[in-house]
Amino acid sequence: MRVAFLGLGQMGSPMARRLVSAGHEVAVWNRSREKAREIEGARAEDTPADAVRGAEVVMTMLADDAAAQEVALGADGFAAAMAEGAVHASMSTISPALSRRLAEEHARRGQGYVAAPVFGRPEAAEGGKLRVLAAGPKEAVKRCLPLFDAVAQQTFDLGEDPPAANVVKLCGNFIIASMIETLGEVFALGRKSGVAPEALLDVLGTALLSGPILAGYAKTIAESRYEPAGFKLRLGLKDVRLVLATADAAEVPMPVASALHDRYLAGVAQGLGDLDWSGIARLAAESAGLDG
Ligand SMILES: NC(=O)c1ccc[n+]([C@@H]2O[C@H](COP(=O)([O-])OP(=O)(O)OC[C@H]3O[C@@H](n4cnc5c(N)ncnc54)[C@H](OP(=O)(O)O)[C@@H]3O)[C@@H](O)[C@H]2O)c1
After folding, report:
1. What distance in angstroms lies between residue 62's CA and the mean position of ligand 1's atoms?
2. Ligand 1 neighbour 12 (Cβ under 6 A)
3. Which of 82, 150, 195, 219 is found 20 to 30 A from 109 (Cα to Cα)?
4. 129 has catalytic annotation
5. Taking residues 179-196, what's their average pLDDT?
6. What pLDDT does 201 receive?
């Protein structure tokens, strides 16, 4: 299939490589040009509009709402250059509100829109092991499935209303972020009480934290190993903000999310924005008077 892939950060680069390996004809664009030239077998383009011309599907994996909006709908946005009938699969973690707007803007131009945020870190993207949360018109989702198959082990069908997928993604990230905070607090409590992190990890990992995600974060926190970041702390703050904005609009009190917001904000304020998002555990340790 002819695909355009826009946004070649930690997630986008391995995803674009997977599409090339799966035999698709891939055009790529990234704000910092050199990353586009590093995707072997893909055509590097200078503007989003050039990349999407002739594409049947345009996939985006950009940092946040501001980037996603600018690249799609800004003065040089690609929506105006996308063919009628082409589909935009928006894979970034963005707000349900922007997802709704993108769906409307594409529909106005006779184009399709699928919200398709993902679970999984860069290693999962590299191995084609992401999980895609897809929502959009049936035909548009169907068109994207072979591409999702190239990057993911599973695609969930969340119905025809795109923002539903973004809400589910935010729910998932909120659970992970709250567990990271909880783990940060318990490892601080253990250390302060003379329990070695390895001993606590051994017990919690075996008895309570089944599943690779929580066990993986517990290990990272036990070892205080927050670099290199798989998912940056500043993007974690972005996601907690999105959770709170979505909850605010829906009138859903989320007191744990409010506390998490302060934790992530403190992390960014203290210059830790480029650590992994599990780095908030360092703040939990430091507030207990321990070394991070
Ligand atoms: N990392 C993870 O584990 C993970 C997992 C699931 C979902 N996600 C989501 O996936 C998305 C990408 O995350 P990532 O980890 O790949 O982030 P990243 O490494 O920071 O990459 C961000 C990408 O967005 C581009 N970008 C940022 N601001 C821009 C702007 N104003 N205009 C145009 N392009 C802009 C960057 O371009 P430059 O290269 O020029 O900076 C880069 O291509 C985010 O929404 C994130 O929440 C991440």
Report:
1. 4
2. yes
3. 150
4. no
5. 97
6. 96
